[in-house]
Specification:
Chain A: This is ABC transporter permease. The complex is a heterodimer of chains A (290) and B (276). Chain A starts with a helix and ends in a 6-residue tail after the last helix. Chain A folds into two domains: 31 residues; 219 residues, MetI-like fold (Orthogonal Bundle), CATH 1.10.3720.10. Helix content of chain A is 83%, strand content 0%. With 276 residues, chain B is of the alpha/beta class. In chain B, helix 3 crosses helix 4, helix 3 runs parallel beside helix 5 and helix 7 packs across helix 9. Chain B has two domains: 178 residues, P-loop containing nucleotide triphosphate hydrolases (Rossmann fold, 3-Layer(aba) Sandwich), CATH 3.40.50.300; 66 residues, no CATH class. Chain B contains nine helices and ten strands. Chains A and B meet through helix 8, helix 9 and helix 12 of A and strand 6 and helix 3 of B. The structure holds adenosine-5'-triphosphate (ATP) and magnesium ion. The site of adenosine-5'-triphosphate has 13 residues of chain B, from strand 2 and helix 2.
Chain lengths: 290, 276
């Protein structure tokens, strides 16, 4: 038995020695690294909840101003169906808005990078669309599109679109000119050069933009709901505010933030799997996001 | 060995030579760059003829137009005046019948060593199995066996350069252009790469143009050395290197012909920098 486990051990260390020249890039290793990077922020979050709890338990703040974590969670547990439905609505608007923003954003960026004329004409327009406060034009979308989900999705798209375009343009432009020259000596056309060199090289930038855009999409959806809705987390918060129901308000806020964090983490996880080469380098640089 | 080499070179010659016979012809070429602030004459009065299977080194001070010369031959750059011909054909745009090794390895960091080499095949639409076999053969030849699946950030600088070299050789280009490929390497690795490159050149019969800052490297590797002087960039002298085909790093360097070659280059470059 002991001998058996000893040989097991030997085999394991043997194979581990063999892979040192070529580190394993399996899903397990990536997940382990991800966990290693995330435990700290999770710990900080837990500490914040403890402080929140301590402050309210010691009665430092009036309960109608800041409810205790217990009371907030009670509200969520008491009305799970209600929260589940409204969370689903906001998630739906957010994700759809995010995905549309990615499609439209990446496409416009590609067109802009390949056509200076389009870039010159589109860029000012883009900037103009970005500086208009979305909350100011959101009512207009309600007038145009009604009380359904579409105006919220439109606001989410508008919020998420800008960082995606900017990051993709930056990524596509930051290509080493020598890489493009190399491609030319290989006789590659524009299509092959784009798919095999330029686009993959731009992905680290694109993902940076996607992370910002993910949180913007949540904000966009909620802003849309503020302006005119009868469901969604924005609606829940607005209602709770009107009723001075702070536990309900906090519950809504909590879930909303959670939604943003989850979307962010999903994008980050995606980055780990799509860009293992880049993520591994970043680990060396010891920069932890989240 | 020598006779086999000669045979190899002659087949190379017959397969690539056209009406004029030369692999590379540069005819009274000038290159001017127009920037916002001023016009720069990078090259002027440059004429050069390189026979198939030759190994030509190019040396000269920084900014004298060595990279520009390679870009001209590859068609990545058009001359302001004069003509460039490759195998008798006018160079009008980027040429795909060359292999180019850049100063930096220019590898795709998301591709393993092997897949970086195979990029050449994918871009050219070469048959996959055949390309893979050739890639493995080249990696064995350059001592990359065991690192086929390693990513560029897991390779040393010398290994990265070797991957770039394999990539440039994958499609058996009749002309190989190398722009300071070993500049970033330590002395020992550089020596090893020189010996390898010389052997690969003998085995493939490729015409090579190599830009380098090392006078010893230039002479050790080449049949001819092009010495360039800056402002404006022009060819100061063509130096024939009368060393035997079979070269040995230590022995070759102690030969009088080697000393003569390096000494002459040093004089030319020194004179150029003294007149600055
Ligand atoms: N795209 C460009 N635009 C403007 N000037 C350029 C351009 N490329 C090169 N030059 C100029 O042309 C001259 C020759 O450049 P080149 O890169 O060929 O030099 P080099 O001999 O390769 O130098 P180094 O040894 O430093 O690589 C330099 O003076 C440089 O400033
Ligand atoms: Mg140069």
């Amino acid at each position: 038995m002991a001998a058996q486990s000893a040989t097991d051990e030997l085999e394991r260390t043997g194979s581990a020695g063999a892979v040192t020249a070529r580190p394993r890039r399996g899903a397990g290793a990536s997940l382990a690294r991800f966990a290693q990077q995330t435990w700290r922020p999770v710990a900080v979050l837990a500490a914040l909840v403890v402080i929140w709890w301590a402050v309210t338990a010691a009665n430092l703040i009036k309960p109608y101003l800041v409810p205790s974590p217990g009371k907030t969670f009670d509200v969520i547990l008491a009305q799970t169906g209600y929260f589940a439905h409204n969370t689903w609505i906001t998630s739906y608007e957010t994700i759809l808005g995010f995905v549309i923003a990615i499609a439209v954003g990446v496409l416009s960026a590609v067109v802009m990078v390949y056509s200076p004329t389009v870039e010159k004409s589109l860029y000012p327009l883009l900037l103009f669309a970005q500086v208009i406060p979305k909350i100011a034009i959101a009512p207009l979308f309600v007038v145009w599109l009604g009380f359904g989900l579409s105006p919220k999705i439109v606001v989410a798209v508008l919020m998420a679109f800008f960082p995606i375009v900017i990051s993709t343009v930056t990524g596509l432009k930051s290509i080493d000119p020598e890489m493009l020259q190399l491609s030319a000596t290989m006789g590659a056309g524009a299509g092959k050069t784009f798919w095999k060199i330029r686009f993959p090289a731009s992905l680290p930038h694109l993902f940076a933009g996607l992370k910002v855009a993910a949180t913007m999409a949540v904000t966009g959806a909620v802003v849309g709901e503020f302006v005119g809705a009868n469901e969604g987390l924005g609606y829940v918060i607005l209602q709770a505010n009107g009723n001075l129901d702070t536990p309900m308000l906090f519950a809504g806020l909590l879930i909303m933030s959670l939604l943003g964090v989850v979307l962010f983490v999903v994008v980050e996880l995606l980055e780990y799997f799509v860009l293992p080469w880049h993520a591994s380098r970043r680990t060396d640089a010891a920069t932890t996001s989240l | 060995m020598t006779s086999m080499m000669a045979g190899n070179t002659s087949t190379q010659r017959s397969s690539t030579a056209t009406a004029t016979g030369a692999a590379v012809e540069i005819d009274d070429v000038a290159v001017r760059f127009r920037t916002k602030k001023k016009d720069v004459t990078a090259l002027t009065d440059v004429s050069l003829r390189i026979e198939p299977g030759e190994f030509v080194s190019i040396v000269g001070a920084s900014g004298c137009g060595k990279s520009t010369l390679l870009k001209l031959v590859s068609g990545l750059l058009r001359p302001s005046s004069g003509q460039v011909r490759l195998h008798g054909e006018d160079v009008r745009g980027p040429r795909r019948d060359i292999g180019y090794v850049f100063q930096r390895a220019a590898l795709l960091e998301w591709r393993s060593a092997r897949r970086n080499i195979l990029l050449q095949a994918e871009m050219r639409g070469m048959p996959r199995a055949q390309a893979r076999e050739r890639a493995d053969e080249l990696m064995a030849m350059t001592g990359l066996t065991g690192f086929e699946d390693a990513y560029p950030n897991e390779l040393s600088g010398g290994m990265q350069q070797r991957v770039a070299l394999c990539r440039a050789l994958l499609h058996r280009p009749p002309v190989l252009l190398m722009d300071e490929p070993f500049g970033a390497l330590d002395a020992l690795t550089r020596e090893q790469m020189n010996v390898e490159l010389r052997r690969i050149w003998q085995e493939t019969g490729t015409t090579v143009m190599l830009v380098t800052h090392s006078i010893a490297e230039a002479v050790y590797l080449a049949n001819r050395v092009v010495v360039m002087t800056p402002r404006p960039g022009t060819i100061a002298e063509l130096i024939d290197v009368d060393l035997p085909v079979e070269r040995d790093y230590g022995k070759t360097m102690s030969e009088p012909e080697f000393a003569r070659g390096t000494g002459r280059i040093r004089d030319l470059l020194g004179a150029a920098s003294a007149s600055d």
